[in-house]
Amino acid sequence: MGLKKLIKTATFYEIIQGMSVTGGYFLKDKVTVEYPKEKIAPHPRFRGMHALITDPVTGRLNCCACRLCETICPSQCITIESSESPDGDKSIDVFDIDLARCIFCGFCEEICPCAAIVMTSVYELATYDKNDFFLDKEKLVANQVNAHKELNRR
Amino acid sequence: MTDFIFLLIKAILWVAVGVGMVPFIIYFERKFAGFFQSRMGPTYAGPWGVLQSFGDMAKLLSKEDLIPDWADKPVFRLAPYILFVPAFIVMALIPFGPMGVEIFGYTVDLVIADFDAGVLLFLALGTVAVYGIVFAGWASNNHWSLLGSLRSGAQMVSYEISMGLALVGLIILSGSLSFVDIVDGQAGNFWNWYFIPQIVGFVIFYVASIAELNRAPFDLAEAEQELVAGHMTEYTGMRWGLFMFGEYVNMVVVSAVMATLFFGGWRAPFEALDFIPGFIWLVGKVLFFVFMYMWIRWTLPRYRYNQLMDIGWKIFLPLAIANLAVTALIVSVN
Amino acid sequence: MGGAPTNGHAHGAEAVHRPTLEELKERKIRTRQRVHEGQETITVSMGPQHPSMHGVYQAVVDLDGEIIVRTRPGIGNLHRGVEKLAEQMTYHQFIPVTDRLDYVASFAMNHGYCEAVEKLMGVEVPRRARYIRTIAHELVRLANHILWLGVHIMDFGAQTFFLICFRDREYILDLFEMVCGARLTHSYARIGGVSKDLPEGWVGRCRSVVEFLPKRFDEYERLITANRIFNKRARNIGIFTSEDCNAWRITGPTLRSTGIARDLRKDEPYAAYDEVDFEVAVEYNSDVYDRFLVRMKEMRESCKIIRQCLDNLPDGPYLAHDAAHVLPLKKNVLRDSAAMIQDFMHVLRGPQVPKGEVYRAIEVPKGEMGVYIVSDGGPIPQRLHLSTPSFYHGQAVPPMFEGEMLADSVGIFGSIDVVLGDCDR
User: Fold this and answer.
1) Which of C34, C159, C197, C274 is 20 to 30 Å from the Cα of B219, by its Cα?
2) Residue C309 falls within a domain, yes or no?
3) What residue spans define the domains of chain B?
4) Domain range holding A22?
5) How many Cβ contacts (< 8 angstroms) between chains B and C?
6) How far is A6 from chain B (nearest CA, A)?
7) CB within 8 Å: B39 and A22
8) What is the pTM of this model?
9) Is residue A24 located within the same domain as residue A65?
10) How many domains does chain A have?
11) First to last CA, chain A
12) pLDDT per residue over A93-140, tens digit each?
């Protein structure tokens, strides 16, 4: 054991060095974000709760009931039922997403050929009622207000 | 009669301050832990979260009092009290002002008990507190608790001796075992305090006191990462709270002892500052040591128990004996 | 006590004494000799609910005093049948499932899987995509090592370190949220590239993070590297020599701490690793402390790699133009009917896969991750086997624990970096 090391040991050199680091944090600004009071806005690609987009002009759903999202979904959480509407278009009767199954991989959004289903910035999904995890068409359409401004057209 | 009344007032006052400090020290521990970790600590209960400890207390009191079926019930119940009753006894020995002060025309000694062998009593009672942990671990009848209490026992034998020997040098300097005399021996400015001639003794005592308090880096009996919660594993609700309480009362008391022995007790660092009551100086010094305990706890990793024994026997014991020899030599030459 | 603590990067490894294999073996045998057969033991169960067990690993240990005599590992509490799931999913669909293997370093898992599938399909990945993958992989390595570091040091009892590390990991998670929309389960790699291009301003932000993190690493080192308690605790425990590592198929930083410079990034380069300059971090003592040093070095090397990639980031497509194997670009799908048909074909039918089998291994943060695919020409794999590092590392726990103290067991277990999602699959 060299003299230098002996002195360092006796004076608790490296312990004081370590304590200076934590002591420095004591005075610095805190990184806490006090969550329910202040919230961080997710980045524009964030994959949160889903939404169905309607055409701003006609007010009809963008969705054409091609069922690609239903097919690609790895956790099979999307259920779509459609029928022919009187004017000859496809109408979406059922569009359900079971959020309790969803793994938020974003494949539905990525695969959609008509930019109908998107993932929004809504991330506060905790709830006291399991039924809230079940999103039907109305909830999905209503959620489109939270959709990211620039849609992720990669 | 007046003596007795004053004794009662002093006792109640001192204990009230000691106990009253504990919730706030727990609050500060949590707040400062947050600050050291660059977060904010408790903020909700009261302004800046100052009432956090009281909220915790209410929560702990409302919890179910659970005693495991296989526990040794009387010992299980007794254990938390053993931990902190000795601390209160030590409190009585600590002077918090000069002797023979005139208050409302009465002459009062600002110490509860000027006991001749105060330092010895402190060391003896400090050892008793370990029984609380050992009992808790044994009575819980749980492997984690048992390991915790075994560690605690091993820890005790390794640090108590060097802790005692570290104080002998100081006792030689002061020529007395009484806390009051030791404080009187440090009269004057801060360079008369004993920590300067007894710096080695102080360092040993300080490190050993961390071990006595079961705090990181020597919190081997508790060792969350290894032993779940050590001796406290089976305790719930307010019984667990009593352990926490005991730990912090011990912290206040050991800090007060340290301030008294090495840092002039209630005396101001400069004679010019004597107009500030001694009580405030003492509390200030106590809080300083408590803060240092927190700082160390939130910075350092934990020793292994055989390493603590290594330190106790192979480093601190020889150092303490050397310190004692050198002190004795210098004192006898003078 | 060991020699002077090494910073590992300043004065090079030459100054440090390199123990030979025999010395290491002897040290390990000395540890094992603490075990005396026939002693009365008590049995405690570390995990799955032990506060410091990583994940849901269970180690039932027999203790003689505090010496561990025997260890019976228990895995499978997080078993999800990932390999079986793969047999019912198209190659694209399986990508999000790989996120759930090593959820601390999701992108690395995506990457390993996609590399294997690309090898099977013969897809050429564009240069930009390879660079982006390299950046993302190194970021994920940083995130993994920072998290590992915090948890590992907390295993030794330092509480503050854990939160400091978690705070710094946030910067990297933020970068991932910007680029792919998720903080943990990235699902960022795709067959033939990555799912999205780097967003605007990302490169500058990433650069500032990798400039800033090394300063934080210096802070970590000030806090812990020379710390006498950490040195005493971590040196000479959990020794696992290079022979043992080979016998138990231990890879990654644990192997590199035994003096073997095996790193697939160097040995079998993939992505853009052959175009960047970096060093393989190697240490020689094979103990917990050296695994810590190896990871500290690796974090600095990762920052170096990311900086180089950002400097040389080429332009071009980020996803291969390969209609048979690769999902089309979303903007083309919305515009172009050919791309739309490609989209439909990939979802409804799956990619066109040749018959054959393929094995591809890459260096993920925890070790070597191998993917073995048997294809019968259909759109879903006939058999997919994942050889993930944590599984092998978790296996090696009993011989590592033997003769060690209970107090060190958590530290040793932490040092080999096991994530149970990766282990149980």
Assistant:
1) C34
2) yes
3) 70-333
4) 1-31
5) 85
6) 13
7) no
8) 0.87
9) no
10) 2
11) 62
12) 888 888 888 888 888 888 888 888 888 888 888 889 888 888 888 888
